[in-house]
Specification:
Length: about 400
């Protein structure tokens, strides 16, 4: 199979790059410094059609492929990882679960605004006691008089508390079993649901201009029809959601590596020490060569996984390709930011230089939507190893 990007994908890349360089890059440092979530830019990204790339035309989308979404995330992430994750989570964690598992009525209710980028949705899986072990969820939902009543909390939820957030899709225990795992079900919780509390935003190491909150449910009531998909299928639903998300996070990591490569090449050609550009020294040039290899390899793995999804290949094949791409691209992004910061010397430690921001932003790529350890576990299972 081929996973080369088509001419159309490359043309699309150019248009997203133009937008990202004109509308995002000049402001990214300031937003980061102010921990500002730029709603106006999210709306602009919506007008450009970025949130609707993969959604069907009937909901206002472009009906395009998953590869296009990865191209967009890579290009936005190349200038600003915070806006890259906002797009990634908005589509992968907000739109896709409703599109994949929702009823016609739910799709009509939620998708037009999400697809247009006028509103955002989040996906609340992680809890204080359930991250990698997401099946250990403690949040409970009980059906009472035609309403689901939720109690519990979620943490680290992206796009969950912005002024344009319309809903958070959450997993909750809806039944216990003495013999097997608990029944987990997915529910759509509207932002204005009574008893739904968005706690103050986190103070994060990076992704300063993305929106991340803890959430609390105090007898939070949502209509019975807000059940997403079948009752008890929550576990399978989030596993499928995360497979797609991993490739999208890999694309975000590719954008980060590419940015590090470009900044390092330019700086190593300009900065002189001992009468020559630092790029004349093998100690610097070879590290940058390694970043170039990472950029190419991470891109190939990412777009291979995207092509496997677009071709509708078997789930098992996609699952492994997604984990491989996520693991390699995100660990490479962390390495690339370390190299770029080193190339910049003391300036690399100063916030005026984007390398410092990329350095802080990269770490979470190895954590969100499944840590590196979880990816290694999935890959080992794909190899047939009896890993726990
Ligand atoms: C900025 C940010 C945004 C996020 N956005 C979202 C979101 O929108 N929605 C959402 O639901 N979640 C979100 N998350 C949560 C994220 O997915 C979790 O943090 C991640 O899955 C890890 O879970 P944890 O933090 O509980 O760590 P833990 O699961 O407690 O893991 C701690 C460490 O132990 C390791 N570990 C755990 N189990 C094993 C094992 N079996 N074998 C080997 N090592 C293991 C982990 O790899 C990790 O190194 C976000 C997180 C951050 C930081």
């Amino acid at each position: 199979m081929t996973f080369e990007l088509s001419r159309e994908h490359e043309e699309f890349r150019r248009s997203v790059r133009e937008f990202a360089e004109a509308e995002i890059a000049p402001h990214a440092e300031q937003w980061d410094r102010d921990h500002h979530f730029p709603v106006d830019v999210v709306l602009q990204m919506g007008k450009l059609g970025l949130f609707g790339l993969t959604a069907p035309e009937e909901y206002g989308g472009a009906g395009g492929d998953f590869t296009s979404l990865c191209v967009a995330i890579e290009e936005i992430g190349r200038v600003d990882q915070s806006m890259g994750i906002t797009l990634e989570a908005g589509v992968g964690l907000g739109i896709h679960p409703i599109l994949t598992f929702g009823t016609d009525q739910q799709k009509e209710q939620w998708l037009p605004d999400l697809v247009a980028g006028r509103r955002l949705a989040g996906f609340g899986l992680t809890e204080p006691g359930a991250g990698s072990d997401a099946g250990a969820t403690r949040t409970r939902a009980v059906l009472q008089d035609g309403q689901w009543v939720l109690n519990g909390s979620k943490q680290f939820i992206t796009n969950s508390g912005s002024e344009i957030t319309s809903a958070v899709i959450v997993t909750a225990r809806t039944g216990d079993s003495s013999t097997g795992p608990p029944e987990i079900t997915t529910l759509i919780v509207p932002s204005d649901a009574p008893g739904f509390v968005v706690e103050p935003a986190y103070r994060k190491l990076g992704w300063h201009s993305s929106d991340t909150h803890p959430l609390t449910f105090n007898d939070c009531r949502v209509p019975e029809q807000n059940l997403l998909g079948e009752r008890g299928r929550g576990f399978a639903q989030f596993l499928a959601t995360l497979d797609d998300g991993r490739v999208a996070i890999a694309a975000l990591a590719v954008g980060c590596i590419e940015a590090c490569l470009e900044m390092s090449v330019q700086y190593a050609g300009e900065r002189t020490t001992f009468g020559v550009p630092i790029g004349a020294k093998q100690g610097i040039a070879f590290q940058i060569s390694d970043v170039a290899v990472m950029a190419e390899a991470a891109r190939a793995l990412t777009y291979k996984a995207a092509a496997i999804k677009d071709a509708g290949r078997p789930r098992k094949e996609f699952k492994k390709a997604a984990a491989v791409a996520k693991l390699y691209a995100t660990e490479s992004a962390v390495t690339a930011t370390r190299v770029a910061t080193q190339v910049f010397g003391g300036y690399g430690f100063m916030e005026e230089y984007p390398v410092a921001r990329f350095y802080r932003d990269a770490k979470v790529l190895e954590i969100g939507e499944g840590t590196s350890e979880v990816q290694r576990m999935l890959i080992a299972r794909g190899l047939g190893l009896p890993v726990e």
